[in-house]
Specification:
Oligomer: single chain
CATH architecture of the largest domain: Orthogonal Bundle
Helix content: over 70%
Largest sheet: none
Radius of gyration: 18 Å
Structural class: mainly alpha
Shape: globular
Strand content: under 5%
Number of domains: 2
Number of strands: 0
Bound molecules: phycocyanobilin
CATH superfamily of the largest domain: Phycocyanins
Number of helices: 9
CATH class of the largest domain: Mainly Alpha
CATH topology of the largest domain: Globin-like
Order of helices and strands: HHHHHHHHH
């Protein structure tokens, strides 16, 4: 598990360099957004259950085949597994948001995920749509909470989307 600071130091230490202007600028930008990252994590955590449920409902409304016989989220067990996966993306996305680094996502969430999904027949394209819906809902929630500049919130979720779909988003 790494964060923006430890990743940067690790990088400079491996070549025995002092922090240069690039490093200082990166650190500064991380610390400048620090309070906003914590605020975003607070809002997300307080609304996590609602966000997951609402994003799931919108996904199933948009692609109703998923919850019809033959759909991958059909049956209570698989429906619940789908929402649980959405909850994983939200929770680990929030960790990465606070850390300012995607390492926790690579290590705990994305490793082997495509293979698992492929072997179970979990369709990736609708999963990507579900995460996109959830990201938009998070940003709307943060806007409601009075947060103005929430671009940094895109980073971890775009990272998941990119890794999952293997296309640029
Ligand atoms: C913390 C990191 C982590 C992740 C990410 C994770 C994902 C994950 N999702 C799984 C299943 C699943 N994932 C889904 C998800 C969906 N089906 C759909 O149609 C939708 C598009 C989508 C929801 C958006 C479903 C339905 C299953 C159950 C599939 C089955 O057992 O047939 C499984 C197989 C084992 C299980 O059912 O628990 C894993 C490992 N597990 C982890 O530990």
């Amino acid at each position: 598990m790494r964060d923006a600071v430890t990743t940067l130091i690790r990088n400079y230490d491996s070549t025995g360099r002092y922090l240069d202007q690039t490093a200082i600028d990166r650190l500064k930008s991380y610390f400048d957004t620090g309070a906003a990252r914590v605020q975003a994590a607070t809002v997300i955590s307080a609304n996590a259950a609602e966000l997951v449920k609402a994003a799931g409902s919108q996904l199933f409304e948009q692609i109703p085949e998923l919850i019809r016989p033959g759909g991958n989220a059909y049956t209570t067990r698989r429906y619940a597994a789908c929402l649980r996966d959405m909850d994983y993306y939200l929770r680990y996305g929030t960790y990465a948001l606070v850390a300012g680094d995607a390492h926790v996502l690579d290590e705990r969430v994305l490793q082997g995920l495509r293979e698992t999904y492929n072997s179970l027949g979990v369709p990736i394209a609708p999963t990507v749509i579900g995460i996109q819906i959830m990201k938009d809902m998070i940003k709307a929630k943060l806007a409601d909470a009075g947060m103005v500049d929430t671009d940094f919130v895109d980073e971890p979720f775009d990272h998941i989307l990119r890794e999952l779909s293997e296309v640029s988003v």
